[in-house]
Amino acid sequence: LREIVLLSPPAATNQAGLFSAGGPSLRDVLDRLEEARVDEHTAGLFIRFGPLPGAWGAIGDIAEAIEGVRDAGRPVHCHFEMLDNAGYALAARACDRLTVTPAGMLDAVGVAAQVFYMRSLLDQLGIVADIAHVGRYKDAAEPLVRDDMSPETRESLSALLDDVHAVLVDAIVAGRHMTAEEAQAAIDAGPHDSATALALRLVDGVEFDDEAITRAREACGATRNVVVELEPTAEPMTLSDLLSAMSGEVPEGEPEGPRIVLAYLEGAITDGEEEGMSTADAGPFVRGMRELAEDEDVRAVVLRIDSPGGSALASDRMWHAVRRVADRVPVIVSVGDVAASGGYYIAVAGHEIFAHPGSIVGSIGVVGGKVSIAPLMEEHGMHVETLTRGRNAGWSSLTALWTDEERAVVERLMHSTYERFVSRVAEGRHMEWNRVLELAEGRVWSGADGLERGLIDRYGGVRAAIARARERAGVGDEVPVVEWPPERTMLDAIATSMGGSAGATRTHARASIRDLIDLPAPLRSAMSLATMLEGEHVLVTMPVVLEIR
After folding, report:
1. What is the mean pLDDT of residues 465-493?
2. Whole-angstrom Cα distance, residue 528 to residue 143?
3. Bridge partners of residue 192, in order along the sequence
């Protein structure tokens, strides 16, 4: 009996930090499940689940892998102490038997989204936001300029919640053998303690984990338990390794021979030329894609995207880099939890797009702006005099709002960016321009709506995307799948920290200063916008930041 513990959402990739080996990646989890499926000595699987907040795309990948274990005739028993909406959607769908500890709680109460509006707060602080957008639903910066939700945001967000909630309801209907009405009634009565969860047939038993493991072992006729480690094994480090890292040398190991590449694009998209810890930076990505485009041993690329968007300039550069790869080999895009705005911009460069019903796609639109801190400065006795040569030389200044002439120029740039975005989608999705416009305006769509409207091609996770890549490339299972970028080890983290660029150092310094400011999270978001535009004459598509619990 194999035992797996999954108590938090797996990361898209395994990137070690300076003092840690990094947590398990989604690929780690899928690989361990595949081993359970094919290992002839495995009689069954026991999984301990924890909350998986926001992982509405990742749970689809994991559920498919668990169902593969069940299809191979190996029972899957699951247990939890505390479970949320996404975690329960996975457990209800994928497990043969589900149990909860006596003092546990099931927090599957239906999905909700909150948006914090801060215009009045900013007014009190002496900060004014100046925002422009193209697309009625492009609302990422709306909290900075309104005190309530616009009708367009309410419409778009309500439709998205409907589809994500349907993922939870459908999982309960299919896995717990209920009607949709019974499933909704059980959700409406939550959260549940162990007794009510059992009474409502949301679980099969109430028992401690050791009791559940014993029952699972007996059910599948296993003779012993094997705990499967999801965490990567920490690599031994010698003094020589440490000295090499401190000198900036990083060990390299390029695989040889035909291969399929599983590439990752994760986090907010930036114009950075150096690799960040939690961002999708244009420079490293473009360089990596160019290498893949020129490598004749690469037979196909699966591009896993989990990004809410970001810089329009970076997105276009990254789109072009993916198109270069797609001109030579099949490129299949696999959407994780979200590929919106710039994330979707890049996705349309591939030949096909896979996503899950609960994934978020679209947001074809542009929003950008700046904040003026002039009232705040005046209140605290600071006065600024600005001298310019050129009518719009001060357009990016944080001490004044846009003039009419500056706003006209900014809006012209934004419309140009929007038209380019629409063109990229029309080309990549083989749609008429006017059809794309109907789906654009900055509106976000669920994977379910995206499939219906042609924004994606199929339901499926990364495994299905890899299978499709093999099919289009005409290669079999003998061709290995390798990851890009290579797994980041602790040694890599040390080397990077010793050899960071000046640009990276400035970025990190800014981040550190913002972290020290004791302000509410929504206000820190506004300050982040200010920093993003400080001294940068670029147009940005602000990421859609949305957590659906």
Report:
1. 83
2. 14
3. 106
**Chain mean position to CA 373:** 32
Residue 240's pLDDT is what?
A: 57
With contact defined as beta carbons under 8 Å apart, do 479 and 258 qualify?
A: yes
Per-residue pLDDT tens digits for 113-160? 888 888 888 888 888 887 877 888 787 788 888 888 888 888 988 898
Structure tokens at 217: 């072992």
Amino acid at residue number 258: P
State pLDDT tens for residues 83-117.
999 999 999 999 999 999 999 999 999 888 888 88
pLDDT in tens, 14-71: 655 444 455 688 888 999 999 999 999 999 999 999 999 988 989 999 999 999 999 9
469 within 8 A of 300, measured Cβ to Cβ: yes
Residue with tokens 């490293």: 284
Measured between alpha carbons, how far is 132 from 494 in angstroms, rounded to an integer?
41
Q: What is the pTM of this model?
A: 0.80
Cα dihedral: 325, 250, 509, 286 (round 10): -10
Q: How far apart are CA 532 and CA 507, in angstroms?
A: 10
Rounded (10°) angle between helices 462-473 and 58-71: 80
Q: Which helix (H) or strand (E) holds 277?
A: none
Please give the residue that has the higher pLDDT: either 429 or 534: 429
Percent of the chain with pLDDT over 70: 81
* Contact call for residues 521 and 269 (beta carbons, < 8 A): no
Structure-block tokens of residue 331: 């490129």
User: Angle at Cα 335 formed by Cα 493 and Cα 268, nearest 5°?
Assistant: 45
First-last CA distance in the chain? 32
Mean per-residue pLDDT for 364-379? 82
Give the Cα separation of 301 and 62 in Å (integer): 21
Query: C-alpha 465: how far from its chain's center?
Result: 17
pLDDT for res 350? 96
Run of H or E including 100: strand 97-106
Give the CA radius of gyration of the chain: 25
Q: Going by C-beta distance under 8 Å and a sequence separation of 6 or more, which residues neighbour residue 273?
A: 281, 282, 283, 284, 501, 503
DSSP per residue over 319-357, as a string?
A: HHHHHHHHTTS-EEEEEEEEEETHHHHHHTTSSEEEE-T
Q: What is the distance between the alpha carbons of residues 100 and 212, in angstroms, rounded to a whole number?
A: 9
pLDDT one-digit tens code per residue, 275-320:
665 678 888 999 999 999 999 999 999 999 999 998 888 999 999 9
Q: Please state whether beta strands 97-106 and 192-193 pair in parallel, antiparallel, or not at all (unpaired).
A: antiparallel
What are the Cα distances from residue 542, in Å, to 133, 140, 154, 304, 343? Answer: 10, 6, 19, 21, 11
Q: Which of 212, 207, 219 is nearest to 78 (CA)?
A: 212
Cis link prior to 485 (omega < 30° from 0)?
A: yes
Q: Are 331 and 354 in contact (CB under 8 A)?
A: no
The pLDDT confidence band at residue 337, using thresholds 50, 70 and 90, is: very high
Contacts of 277 (CB under 8 A, 6+ apart): 15, 17
DSSP H or E run through 269: strand 268-270
